[in-house]
Amino acid sequence: MKASFNNVLAKMHVPTRRRLKPAVLIVCVAACCATHVFAQPYPAKPVRIFVASGPGSGDDFVARLLAVKLGELMGQQFIIDNRPGAGGSIGQMAAAKSPPDGYTLLLGGGSMAGARYVNAAVQYDVLRDFTPVSLLETSPFVLLVHPSVPAKTAKEYIALARSRPGKMTFGTIGAGQIPYWSVILFNNMARIDAVEVAYKSTEGALIDLISGRVDYNFAPVVAALTNKARLRSLAVTTSARSPMLPDVPAMGEAALPGYEMPAWRSILGPAGMRSEIVEALNKSIRQVMAAPDVRQRMLESGSEPITSTPEELTARFADWVERFGKIAAQAGLKPQ
After folding, report:
1. pLDDT surpassing 80 at residue 23
2. In this structure, which of 128, 129, 164, 223 has its CB flanked by the most CB atoms within 10 Å?
């Protein structure tokens, strides 16, 4: 054993009189190997992105587009892992409990900031349990009504609904999603007393809206465009008009100054991710979302690509936690 160690040391050009003891040498070699492993550029293996909704959803579309482009740019596969259920909390908690090594990420939206106010299954704190990486996009929802409703503008619809307290019905796709918050804020600001009808999907809510079973709801821009002949678009939930619906005013412009409830999506990781990994991801995400082909596909889906620094995303979540808390208090909402 002694001879073999001496041979190794001789090749390393260590003077004989200063040669290390075998046990010390083993520790040094192991430390060098560990340093080499940790020095490997990120990502050194495939990265998983949790999506808290099923295949075919808007979240899924954005995540898959991003995953393909990040894989091409960063030289590793980014794999989508759909984890729907419990209002999104299943996938979100799975991400929060994962190692913060950069190999598990989450596509998380603005609804996460308000989840704890309406969803009793939520066990995370979005400001404590996640590492913000970058904003990805923002998109409006649209106030849609059945053509039989005798109102051509949002202001006319508000007047009509106020004249029929408890008679008008609106569709939602479950408490905590942005369409839900859009209609809750709308009803509160407009002082409308209406009846909620809950659906499992946007498609189900649209079918009943088209058939006249419900009077109004908030739906994605794409839904408004594809049903333009069957539904009337009265206003969008962003602060400015959507390029996809230039003739439809923003709600603040049309009837309710100060109204704003856009959807937005971002990339998060578990709390405690190393800053160099966050920076590498942020840089690559910015590059991907600025690419002309990605931007075009996002605009066609009704979204506007928009990125941020991790600090800006942290501030956005903090602002929206406070915003949803006020809306929930005003509406008397409780976690269920």
Report:
1. no
2. 223
